[in-house]
Amino acid sequence: MAALLLRHVGRHCLRAHLSPQLCIRNAVPLGTTAKEEMERFWNKNLGSNRPLSPHITIYRWSLPMAMSICHRGTGIALSAGVSLFGLSALLLPGNFESHLELVKSLCLGPTLIYTAKFGIVFPLMYHTWNGIRHLLCWTFAGGASWESSNNALCVDGQPS
């Protein structure tokens, strides 16, 4: 096998050394270039006024889809909130008690205080219980069918 390879390479090098014109291959255009194909493709798609596929508007919303999006959104919000809280603790002057006294001195009504508390606790609880539901229903239960996941009640009492 190696002898055949060496013979082929040796003949190729000998041909290139003796007559370089024999080794030059004639370039023949194949028809269209990749750039022309891409331009034709994009012009055709822009002319049809279609959205890019797959587009979010082609899907029918379901409860698991909405819960998954909310789970990701609450996770991002919690990560951002914890990061901002940590940065503010490092960068702002004073300590926690002084900031708490500042909030008390604003004399905010109980409605606003309870709404703010709910806005802080709800994403945390939703993300926590949805994560536990996912862990129990999909990891330990070995998964579920789409029909049972749409109808089953798991840990948090929400349809999964």
Count of DSSP H/I helices:
7
- Please write the string of helix (H) and strand (E) elements: HHHHHHH
Distance between the termini: 63 Å
Q: Structural class of the secondary elements?
A: mainly alpha
Give the percentage of residues in beta strands. Answer: under 5%
Largest sheet: none
Poorly predicted ranges (pLDDT <50, ≥5 residues)?
A: none
Shape: elongated
Description of the molecule:
This protein has a domain at 63-148: Fumarate reductase/succinate dehydrogenase, transmembrane subunit (3 helical TM bundles of succinate and fumarate reductases). Helix 4 packs across helix 6. It has 160 residues and is mainly α. The mean pLDDT is 79. The longest helix has 31 residues, at 110-140. The chain contains seven helices and no strands. The protein has helices at 2-18, 20-23, 34-48, 63-91, 96-105, 110-140, 146-151. The two termini are 63 Å apart. 70% of the residues lie in helices and 0% in strands.
Jot down its keywords.
mainly alpha, 3 helical TM bundles of succinate and fumarate reductases, SQR/QFR_C/D, transport, metal ion binding, transmembrane
Outline of the structure:
With 160 residues, the protein is mainly α.
Please render the helix and strand layout as text.
Elements: H1 2-18, H2 20-23, H3 34-48, H4 63-91, H5 96-105, H6 110-140, H7 146-151
